[in-house]
Amino acid sequence: MIIAIANQKGGVGKTTTAVNLATALAAIGKSVLVVDSDPQGNASTGLGLDRKSREPSLYQMLIGDAEAKDVVRATAIPGLSIIPASASLSGAEVELVDTDRRTHRLADALATLPVHDFTLIDCPPSLGLLTVNALVAADAVLVPLQSEFFALEGLSQLLGTIERVKSALNRRLELLGIVLTMVDRRNRLSDQVCEDVRAVMGAKVFNSQVPRNVRLSEAPSHGLPALIYDSRCAGSEAYVALARELLGRINAR
Amino acid sequence: MIIAIANQKGGVGKTTTAVNLATALAAIGKSVLVVDSDPQGNASTGLGLDRKSREPSLYQMLIGDAEAKDVVRATAIPGLSIIPASASLSGAEVELVDTDRRTHRLADALATLPVHDFTLIDCPPSLGLLTVNALVAADAVLVPLQSEFFALEGLSQLLGTIERVKSALNRRLELLGIVLTMVDRRNRLSDQVCEDVRAVMGAKVFNSQVPRNVRLSEAPSHGLPALIYDSRCAGSEAYVALARELLGRINAR
Ligand SMILES: Nc1ncnc2c1ncn2[C@@H]1O[C@H](COP(=O)(O)OP(=O)(O)OP(=O)(O)O)[C@@H](O)[C@H]1O
Ligand SMILES: Nc1ncnc2c1ncn2[C@@H]1O[C@H](COP(=O)(O)OP(=O)(O)OP(=O)(O)O)[C@@H](O)[C@H]1O
Ligand SMILES: [Mg+2]
Ligand SMILES: [Mg+2]
Question: Do residues A9 and A142 touch, judged by C-beta distance below 8 A?
Answer without folding.
Answer: no
